[in-house]
Amino acid sequence: MINGKKVVVVMPAYNAARTLRQTFAEIPKDVVDDVILVDDASQDETAAVARALGIKTFVHRENRGYGGNQKTCYRQALALGADVVVMLHPDYQYTPKLIHAMSGMIAYDVYEVVLGSRVLGKGALAGGMPLYKYTANRFLTLTQNLCLGRKLSEYHTGYRAFSSKVLRTLPLGENSDDFVFDNEMLVQLVYHGYEIAEITCPTYYFPDASSINFRRSVIYGIGVLATTAKFLLARWGIRRAPIFDPDGKKLYGQSDQDPTEGGVLVGDRR
User: I need a labelling partner for 175 at 20 to 30 A (CA). Which of 130, 168, 219, 234 fits?
Assistant: First the structure.
């Protein structure tokens, strides 16, 4: 807890058994009140490792995608009464040691969104980011800064902290269940006028760190450009996509039900 605000870390997981222990060990337990892991139908022992560590664990019985995983993460964090929610990948690509700093900026009402940027400081290349991914990151970031009128160092980091207000207010239920969910969320924040802070974050690319392949990267890049086009059409009053509709589907208040009841795929927690 920071400044009387409950801090919850959420970890969207897929085949993270090898790195989960190391990631969890570095989470600052003195400020983090709860840790939630959502296992997206992994093929390894991710859920078993998480339960052994005492993490509140939810298991999708079918793979719902990275965006679908995050939706469950945020629903469960809000259900626990979180004031500050930090998304941390369990693959140890991002250091958990920044959770205190990122959460503090929100808990003390300085910002409502904080990103851990891989580009500030020494940069992602020093951490082993493939050159083609770095080049695409810079191109897409420049394009979105020009179109959205912002000056972020990158729009593609997976290390993020949010106030509960943001997660309750944005129509996140309208977003994709795929990787472009991340970008849609940031563009939604810009559209609705939120300020976004950034903090320098080292990143590490190694064999056990998760990373999408070239084909999925291309699909993601196309999705980013499509999201940017939707933003411009909405801003110009031509057409407002559902992801920008303030009355669109929210996450809070929805529940993940057991598939045997015709619901959405979640089971197993402790």
Answer: 130
CATH of the domain at 157: 3.90.550.10
What pLDDT is attached to residue 250?
Answer: 93
Q: Is residue 261 part of a domain?
A: no
Helix (H) or strand (E) holding 140: helix 131-148
Dihedral angle over CA of 121, 123, 126, 127, nearest 10: 100
Q: Beta-strand (E) ranges in the chain?
A: 7-13, 34-40, 56-60, 84-87, 113-117, 160-163, 197-200, 266-267
Distance CA 88, CA 22 (A): 13
pLDDT digits (tens, 9 = 90+) for 204-229: 765 555 556 678 888 999 999 999 99
How high is the mean pLDDT of the chain? 89
Instruction: Report the C-alpha gap between 160 and 195 in whole angstroms.
Output: 13
CA pair distance 167, 194, nearest whole angstrom: 12
Which region among 4-13, 57-66, 208-217, 222-231 has the lowest average model confidence (pLDDT)? 208-217
